[in-house]
Structures are given as structure tokens and as C-alpha cells.
Amino acid sequence: MIAELLYLNSYKQIFLELSIIIINYNVKFFLEQCLHTVLKAASPIEAEIWVVDNCSSDGSLTYLKPRFPEVHFIENQKNSGFGAANNQALMACTGEFILYLNPDTLLPEDCLSKCLAFIKTIPSSGALGIRMLDGSGKFLPESKRAFPSPVTAFCKLVGLSALFPKSAFFNRYSLGHLSEYENHPVDVLAGAFMLVKKSVLDTTGAFDERFFMYGEDIDLSYRIQKAGFYNYYFSGSSIIHFKGESTRKGSLNYVLLFYNAMLLFVRKNYRGTKAGLFGFFIQLAIVFRGLISVISKILGLFLKKGQKSSKTDQKRAESMILVPNMAKAQTLKLNKNSILLFLESESFNWKQIIAQVEVFSCTNAQFRFHASKSNSIVGSDSKETEGETLAANIIS
Predict the structure, then answer these.
(1) Contact status, residue 198 vs residue 94, Cβ threshold 8 Å
(2) Given CB 3.0 to 4.6 Å as the disulfide criterion, which of 192, 197, 234, 240 pairs with 102?
(3) Of all residues in the chain, what percent are helix, strand and coil, respectively (each to 5)?
(4) Residue 141 neighbours by CB distance under 10 Å
């Protein structure tokens, strides 16, 4: 499939500056918010947007297609996996640059223009990733990563990377010694926001479809670097990435998908003692993380017993503090029980909202987001927890 894709795209004429590919699986409200931000960020650019729906069961296409007539939608009759769905859209793209973007992201208005301007200044660059924040405004360390190795796997598994987050040795995987506020050449870029030169993809090939979900970004980053290009972490703009909306991070399914993807990467790209040792650590991690997942699920079911049913959307909305502009945001005094609903508008844009969320991140308040003209509210309190969606008509 990759060879065929490479052949077809090598002869395709470039018509646009940017092609954006988003894969959707049962996250229609997060994708609705994402598309509103993407359309604004792409407005000064000659761009196209492709959404591939991987057989969602939540009525995504029925809901989204009438609301976004300028977006190209592809409907799959089965979940073909992240890499395969991206390759499917890539065959139709005509952009000089390809942006692989997750549906659970929010972009500031100048994000795409800044990223394109930066990558164009470095002829040796192959791809670019960006500074990412979670739904609570905290920096996501996976914004910049090193390639996996037995040492990094061991440090991550036993918790040394968390104990020494700034160490170049113990936290090598997240490149903890590199400042999140500076641009750096790095090994691995996150598939949640991965801007790649189309000419580079013609050389390296697209995503390896053997990776169903997770690991395909590591593998592509590896091939880009192996082909002689540089992957860059760009700190000049920040996006929100809610994380894990399609596969819950703590679930057994996540554990199996993620660590089996790592095992596939090792078997594909490493040889000898390094591969054997790393494979051992990955197998150990699968057992360890799997046990934690099962225990957590049992405890969760036990704790839920006797709890009252959750609030209705209306009561949930009544507990939120509406933030319609920057002036209102700057007057707020927050605590950990505060729930802020940021309302995007002409006077309060996404760049300002994302910056304000980062300012408030130290308060441990909760944040929810609503794009003007959208019909939903979304948010997630951390990369570990399930997100929340509400109907927008509850806003008074």
C-alpha cells in the first residue's frame, strides 16, 4: 500500500500550500470544535481539509457534513486504523505540505501560518511538531520525544522519568532537558499535530499501515530522520490537545494497542541485543500496565456503586463561570472547584483563550470550550481522564 501510494503521489500536481487530514472515530463534538478553529487558522492559506470517518457509530457524518460544507469527508465502512485512514486521504491531497491533525485539538488563529513560515526557513527540515497543552493548560511532554530504547523504556516503566523530569538521561524519552519554550531538532513528533513536507513523504513513504493506532508517528519520524531530514519541535505557537478521546488512556485496550505498537516498531527497526532487550521490557510493561488497568477498572466499578446519578447538562452548565472576553478572564479569582466555560467570539479569539488557559493551569480549575456558531461544549480535565461534551443550547 505504501509503495503504491508513493508512486501515485509522486506524479500528482501540487495545487495548494497545505492539506489537512483529520481522522474521526466517535468524537463528533470534539471534531466540531476542532474544525471551527482549523477553518480560522487556515483562512489566510491556500488549504484543503479532509476528514476520514472510521465507521463512527455516533452519527458523526450526519451531524458534521451540513455544518462544514467546505470540508471534504470520506466515509469508511469499517475502522481501518489511524495510519490506513490517513493514507487514504493523502492519496487525494494536493498540498505542498501535509498536516496530520487529531480531532481533539484546538488551534490558535496564527498557528498554521507560523508553522509554515518556520519550516520553510529550514531546507533540511522534513517535518514539524508543535508545543501542546492538555485540556487543563498543562504542557504535554510528548510534544517532543526521543526514539525508544531499552534504557528509556526502563526509566519510564519504573518511574525514574517522572522523578527526574529535567534529566537528559532518566527522562530521555520526553527530552526533559530541552526547554519547551525553545525550538529544537528532535527525534519523534506526535501524530496529533505533524506537519510534513509532501516531497519528503514522496521519499520516505506514508504511514505504515501495520500500526493500527499508536506508534505510526514514531515510525514515520524515524524514516524521515533516516532519509536525512530533520524533525523540528516548534515552540512559537501552542495548541490544546485533549488526548485519548478515541481510546481511553487507562483502558486495557489502550495498553495492548500502545505497547504492541512499540513492539512492532522495535522488531521493524532494531536488530540484535538491543531489539531483544527492548522487547523484553515492552512485554514486561504490557503485563504491568495491564494489571494496573484491570485493578483500576475493578476499583472504579466498586466506587461507582451507591453514587448518585450525574447532573443533567443544564445543572452542569449552571455550575460554570461563563468567560466571554479577556476582560472578564482577567478579573477571575479561581480555585480548584471553579469550572470555566470559554466562549470564543470576535473579541475573544482562540489564541487568547489558549494563552489564558495556560495562565490558569496552576489553579487546577476545570475548563470547557465553545466555538461561536457551534452546537457543543467540550473539555477534558487531564490527559488521563475522559472528556466531557455538552449541548450548546444550555448556555444562557
Answers:
(1) no
(2) 192
(3) 40, 20, 40
(4) 18
CA 54, CA 280: separation in Å to the nearest integer? 33
| Cα dist from 276 to 88, 151, 282, 285, whole Å | 34, 13, 10, 14
Strands 366-370 and 184-186: unpaired
Round to whole Å and give the CA distance between 373 and 356.
Answer: 21
Between 274 and 237, residue with greater pLDDT: 237
C-alpha closest to that of 264 among 218, 223, 197, 199:
218
Nearest-10 Cα torsion for 65, 67, 69, 70: -110
Which helix (H) or strand (E) is 111 found in, with range?
helix 111-120
Name which of 255, 259, 250 is nearest 297 in CA terms.
Answer: 250
Distance CA 208, CA 155 (A): 27
* 265 Cβ contact partners less than 8 Å away, ≥ 6 residues apart: 148, 211, 215, 218, 219, 222
- What is the C-alpha separation between 59 and 57, in angstroms, rounded? 6
On whether the CB atoms of residues 213 and 245 are closer than 8 A, the answer is no
- The SS3 of residue 146 is coil
- Amino acid identity of residue 3, one-letter, is A
Task: Kindly indicate the confidence band of residue 119, based on its pLDDT and cuts at 50, 70 and 90.
Answer: very high
Which residue matches cell numbers 444562557? Answer: 396
pLDDT digits over 320-364, tens only?
Answer: 999 999 999 999 988 878 999 999 998 999 999 999 999 999 998
Q: What percent of the chain has pLDDT over 70?
A: 81
- CA-based angle 193:5:25, to the nearest 5? 45
Q: Across residues 126-135, what is the average pLDDT?
A: 97
